[in-house]
Amino acid sequence: MTTLDKSEIQSVVLTGFPDHPYACFVFLRVLESGKARAWLGRWLPALTTTKERKPGPRVINIALSATGLLALGLDQDALATFPRELQEGMAGTEHRSRVLGDTGSSAPETWVFGGRHNSDKDSGKSVDVMLLCYAQSETELRGLCAELRRDYLESGALSEVYFRDTQLLPTPTEHFGFADGISQPRVAGSGARSRPGMPLL
Q1: Contact (Cβ atoms closer than 8 angstroms) between residue 98 and residue 104
Q2: Which of 29, 129, 145, 157 stands 20 to 30 A from 72 (CA)?
């Protein structure tokens, strides 16, 4: 039987947040390795893991890209142990773009940030870190975003590439008209109940 250490898994990996309808997503670039590590260390205790059965009024999760891991000081040999998909990134190779269907007008060359033409550090558009924040009220979300923003900007740790705040859609249909979450897999050991046709990872 698979057993997961839920204290080591961020909550967004295994669940959505229906009780937290307000959210913001922030793409960031590491400016200075030591300051960025210090910033991450300050916020690690605030991250919500799957160990918490019922999250508090606000949820914070953080994702790192391959370039982000390197910028924070991970060496290349250690990065090589990660899955190929992470190492390459969504725009890393022509093959990856074809696999994902990112061709033609959707090719990485057309992206505002994170694409091949703006993936180097000098462009200011490379993405190293992603913040995912959820809250039970708009006021709570604004306060959380302001607190995080003040810290990473004033400390000189990170620069902001893109910021988007949003809220839960009124129906279970996403922006392209498809049923949202219909193909979410059930992770072995998570305790999630299986639904007909739900794949198991």
Answers
A1: no
A2: 145
